[in-house]
Write a structure and sequence with these properties.
With about 260 residues, the chain is an all-alpha fold. Helices cover about 70% and strands about 0% of the residues. It contains 14 helices and no strands. The protein starts with a helix and ends with a helix.
Length: about 260
């Protein structure tokens, strides 16, 4: 089973090679910047590379997109991230992933009405795009509308039945809405799945926190940190973790990631 460290090392090698072959390529610089933020947690180095990529080709939507989502948003610069995502969307208005990630920036900004509107737009662009329904579930969860949240996550599971993230999100919303038995059932299935393929420790953590099992949650987050799990990059701005911010362990984690 390949986990993030293996995949990340290959991505880093490929990005570095691409820049060596063509240092004037905005695509190569963007890939290198993405690796520096998501794998190296070198936020300043990543920002320099993203800005270099944008200077080389200001009309390359992925540079603005990844700059927003893997560099600006994680560091709490959410207004800047929104501006970059809106620019990316203007450059590629039919991209479902760009539309979805603009939704995520609104979600991180706690502007849930704007997030709902943008999520509707994403679903109109691509009605079978499971990440859009996953995001819709997150928004409804924050609005405490757990029936709507569960329905959105169930749609995401239907569209991507083999995605641990979709199942985990459904388990978390079950836990938050008091359906503990259903949440524990999904947690058990994920444990079995993890014996056959990689399941991010972050997913286990998010369910344990929803179940009120903070010690287990932090234990899984520590494992996610060891794995350099991609999901950790947004932990500082993700509303799901607001209740943990007074816990010293959360501050230690964000410090290790370089997000303090």
């Amino acid at each position: 089973m390949k986990g993030p460290p293996d995949v990340g090392a290959k991505a880093a090698s490929s990005a570095a090679t691409a820049v060596m072959l063509d240092g004037q390529s905005a695509e190569a610089r963007t890939s290198l910047a993405h690796v520096r933020s998501t794998q190296d947690w070198d936020w300043r180095g990543a920002e320099r590379e993203f800005q270099r990529a944008i200077t080389l080709d200001p009309h390359y939507p992925t540079a603005h997109h990844w700059y927003a989502m893997s560099c600006l948003a994680p560091r709490g610069r959410l207004d800047d991230a929104r501006d970059q995502m809106q620019l990316a969307q203007s450059l590629d208005p039919v991209s479902a992933i760009i539309a979805r990630d603009l939704t995520m920036v609104h979600y991180y900004r706690r502007d849930f009405e704007a997030a709902l509107d943008q999520c509707d737009h994403t679903i109109e662009l691509e009605p079978h795009f499971s990440p859009a329904y996953w995001t819709l579930g997150l928004i409804q969860e924050q609005r405490k509308d757990f029936d709507e949240s569960a329905a959105a996550f169930q749609r995401a599971v239907y569209l991507s039945p083999h995605s641990p993230r979709m199942h985990c999100a459904l388990g978390r919303t079950f836990a938050l809405s008091g359906k503990r038995k259903l949440a524990l059932g999904i947690l058990s299935k994920l444990r079995q799945l993890s014996k056959r393929r990689y399941v991010s420790p972050f997913e286990f953590a998010s369910i344990h926190f929803a179940l009120g099992q903070a010690d287990l949650g932090f234990r899984w987050l520590a494992k996610a940190c060891q794995d350099r799990a991609f999901e950790l990059t947004a932990i500082k701005v993700d509303p799901r973790f607001d209740s943990l911010k007074d816990d010293r362990r959360f501050a230690d984690l964000t410090q290790e990631i370089g997000l303090n």
